[in-house]
Design brief:
Blueprint (H helix, E strand, L loop, with lengths): L8 E4 L2 E4 L3 E6 L10 H6 L5 E8 L10 E8 L3 E2 L2 E2 L14 E7 L2 E7 L5 E6 L4 E4 L3 E7 L5 E8 L7 H6 L3 E6 L2 E6 L2
Length: 187
């Protein structure tokens, strides 16, 4: 007997609905290890929502061949000149890839190789599809004035390694320079 569960989800009115959806909210207070401008960070309201994630886990974590589905909503804003962004992560099983599909808003997908020597970014806009290769850290930043939302699909056995990014960060950060999102070396 197959222990996989079919998941029928709907995206409507700006939210994910249908059989079970888990919701997570990240506020400024949860993100103290990702923003570089410590003084600007200290001035931010601790309860300021930076992003929300809605996820569906139709199979058990660790199931080989299974997939998880999620939608992330990053609010517009900045800490100093650095855009609101997600924590960022590698996958615990490093060779696992992921797909992002931008639904609304505008932003940047920031990518970094395993040895932190190369960081690059791809523009996210409605309809853009981004394949994230295994062995690549990834995070997203909202560079617009409205909510950036994107769907994600990743292997259920991939896991998330947030610790490496929390400890070392990305070697470049995305800031606004002269009105343009620009990758610069991390201070």
């Amino acid at each position: 007997m197959n222990d996989m569960v079919a998941a029928k989800l709907f995206f409507g009115k700006g939210r994910l609905a249908g059989g079970p959806v888990e919701r997570l909210t990240r506020r400024i207070a949860d993100l103290g290890d990702i923003f570089s401008d410590r003084e600007a960070y200290a001035r931010m309201p601790a309860d300021q929502v930076v992003y929300e994630v809605e996820s569906s886990f139709p199979v058990a974590a660790g199931t080989e061949g299974g997939l998880f589905i999620g939608i992330t909503y990053i609010h517009p804003g900045k800490v100093g000149e650095e855009y609101f962004m997600t924590k960022g992560h590698f996958h615990e099983i490093r060779n696992r890839g992921e797909v992002y599909i931008c639904m609304e808003g505008e932003g940047m997908l920031i990518l970094m190789n395993e040895d932190h020597s190369s960081v690059w970014a791809e523009k996210m806009e409605p309809g853009s599809i981004h394949y994230i290769n295994g062995h690549t850290a990834h995070r997203t930043a909202n560079t617009g004035s409205t909510v950036l939302s994107f769907g994600a699909c990743w292997p259920s056995d991939a896991g998330h390694d947030y610790r490496t990014i929390s400890e070392r960060g990305f070697s470049k950060i995305l800031v606004e320079q002269n009105g343009v999102p620009t990758l610069v070396n991390k201070p």
